[in-house]
Amino acid sequence: MAEATKNGNGTAVVEQKSMLLLDLGTKSKKNVRRLRKGRGKLLNRINSTIEDLKADGEIDENSQVVVVVVKQRDRKRGWW
Length: 80
Description:
The chain is built from two helices and four strands.
C-alpha cells in the first residue's frame, strides 16, 4: 500500500496508494480526550474495526495509513 523511502537529508518520504478513513461521528468531550491519550472505548472501537476489515480482506494486512474523524459533541447548556 504505502512505501517509505529515505531521502538524502535523513527524512522519510511516504508514497501512499490508498487511505482508510473512519468517521466515528459525534462523541463526548471525555471520549475524545481519552482517544487523544490512546485509551478508551473509541480506541477499542477503532482497533476492532480495523481488525474486522483486515479479516474480511477489505484492506491490506500491512496498511498503515488510518485517518479517524471524530466531532466533539457540544456542551450541554444548563442552568449553571
